[in-house]
Amino acid sequence: MLPEQLHETKGWFLQFAARISFFGNKRDLAQDLQRQAFAHSRNLFKPQARPAYTRLVPPSIQSVVIAERIGYYRIRKGYLAKFEEIVSHLVPEASSSQFEQALADFGTCLGFTTERPEKSYGVGPDVLWLLNDKKALVIEAKSRKEFDNPLTKAEHGQLLVAEQWFKGEYPGYEAVRVSVHPNRKTTEQAIAADAHVLTYEKLNSLISDTSSLSE
């Protein structure tokens, strides 16, 4: 079982325990159990009180993590089918939620630890890739924009705010600001120094390279 599946399973059992406690009129215990469940799996119900942010555990050696993921599947085609399912949503036609989840899952395929802080906690970037115990990609996804529209000052501001949140939660880490954007254009007001743009062209190249390594 993959590490994220273990967390999902433990979270589900904790949520089940929370439901039992709730119907047993142990409301405080139910809330505590649901907070623990949500910390294990962001796909479960959010507790009534917003949980405190739980830091991600840095990944181990990237090559080892990738090999373990591939080795989980009995046949290589099983992994490739899952990979293709993930990247099929990294297209402009996907909804914002589909794209962001696929981007997080793609980062996991690359051997990183990932999550969607803004979705889970209402703060932070759209997607976070923890590369190791020293460096991370703080990612804002603008996947639904028209192809010729430039990156605006407000959108770059979102990226700066996400970076500041990350620095507060992960002191000592280097944050690389990344905007997934259909082009490299910016408005005159958007001073995007030290920020990086991941266009669909470059994203597709990365997907192709990753697929080739997995075959």
**Beta fraction:** 5-15%
| Helix coverage percent | 40-55%
Straight-line distance between termini: 21 Å
Structural class, judged by helices and strands?
alpha/beta
Number of domains: 2
CATH fold name of the largest domain: Restriction Endonuclease
Task: Round the mean pLDDT to the nearest integer and report it.
Answer: 86
The helix/strand order is: HHHHHEHEEHEEH
| CATH class category of the largest domain | Alpha Beta
Gross morphology is: globular
Number of strands: 5
- Unreliable spans are none
- CA radius of gyration: 19 Å
So how many helices?
Answer: 8
Main β-sheet, spatial strand arrangement: 1-2-3-4-5
Q: Largest beta sheet, briefly? A: 5 strands, mixed
CATH architecture assignment of the largest domain? 3-Layer(aba) Sandwich
For the structure shown, list the relevant keywords.
single chain; 215 residues; alpha/beta; 2 domains
Overall description:
With 215 residues, this protein is of the alpha/beta class. It is 51% helix and 12% strand. Strand 2 and strand 3 (135-141) form a beta hairpin. The mean pLDDT is 86.
